[in-house]
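2 proteins. here.
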Amino acid sequence: MTNHALKPGRGGIFRSYAHMLEALAIRRATPLLRLRTAADIESRLQMLNGGPDAVPGLIAVVVRDYDGSIDQNGRVDVLINASPSTQTYAAPSLAGQHLRIHPIHLLSLDPVVKRSSFDHKTGTFTIPGRTAGVFVSREGFRRNGAALKSGAGAASGGPPETLAGCIASPAHPKLCATGRRTGPGHLARHGVYHALLEPTINRR
C-alpha cells in the first residue's frame, strides 16, 4: 500500500480475523479439503469452469469421495468469484444434485456469503462478487449442522448466534469481532468454533 493514511480499523482487523477462522473451520470440518497426496488430488478433484466458454473470473471445483473412505459427505463443491459482481455458473451434470451452502457459512459474520446458492433443478450456482462459497450435499449439510449444534451445546448449553459474532482475539480476549466488549458467557457460545479449529491449528 503506497497510501500510508489507509490504516485498518479495529472492526476491520477483527472481521479479517473472523474470516480466517471461518475458512479454517470449514477446512477442518471437510476432509475432502485436506487431501494429503498428489494422487488423491488428481483422482478426486475436477475443475468445472474451463474451456473457451468459461465464465471469466470464476473458479469452480468439485472434489469427490466415491467410496466414502475420506469424507462421508461424498463431495464438496467450491466456487470462487473474483469479479466485483454476482456470477452464475450452470453445470447441467449437477442438475438433480441437492447441494447446500456449508453450514459454517450460515453462521458467518459476513452476510454476503450467505447469499450464495444452488438451484438443483438446473444445476446452477449463484455466487456474490468477491466471494468464495463451499457447498456440500444435503446429507453432508445435515451431518455438519448436527455436529455444530452438538459442539455448541457442549460449550454453552445452546447454539451459537453467529460463528464469528464474538470470537475472542488472543491479544484481547474480551473484545468481540465487532470491537465491543463482551463477557465470558457470550464468548462461550462460540466454543464449537474453537473446538473445530484447535486440531487444525495444532496439526496444520
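next one coming up
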Amino acid sequence: MNTELEATTGEVLGPRVSGSPDRKARPLSPSAEVLVVEDDEALLPILEFLIEEARPGCAVAWAKNSAQAESLLADKHGSAKLRVVIADLFIQGDKNGVELWRRYGGSARSFLVISGASRERFLSLVPDREAPLFLPKPLDLDACVETLRLMLENPGWY
C-alpha cells in the first residue's frame, strides 16, 4: 500500500459534522470486536475496509458521538467481546476520545485514537504521560492495518 489517505473534512481541531443529524449508531452486536467512534461518516467505510484487512470477517459497530459510544461501552453484555475501540480525538458530544479511553479502556480492551490534530495537541490532553495509541490523519494505511492487527490479536495490548 504505502499510501496516505486524506480523509478529514472540516476544522482540524474542532468538532466535525457530516451526514444527516438523525443517523443512529450501528448497534453493538454480541459478536462485535471493534467499536468505531467517529462523527465523520465519510471515514467509516475506509475504517471498515482497514479493519477487514486486519482481521477478515471482524464484526464492527460504530457510534457518531460520545453519548452513543458511552451507551455502547457501558453495556456489559453487549460489549463483552469488544476488543478494540477506534475513537476520533474530537467527536460530537461532551467527551473526547481520550476521555472515553480513560473511562472505558482497560486490560481487556485496546484503544486507538485518530485525529487530524498534531501529536503535540493529542499529548496535551494526556498530561499524566499514560496515553492510548495515536495515529494521525491522514491515515497511513499500512500502519493502521498493522496496528489494528496487533490490537486484535492481543487484547489490552495497549
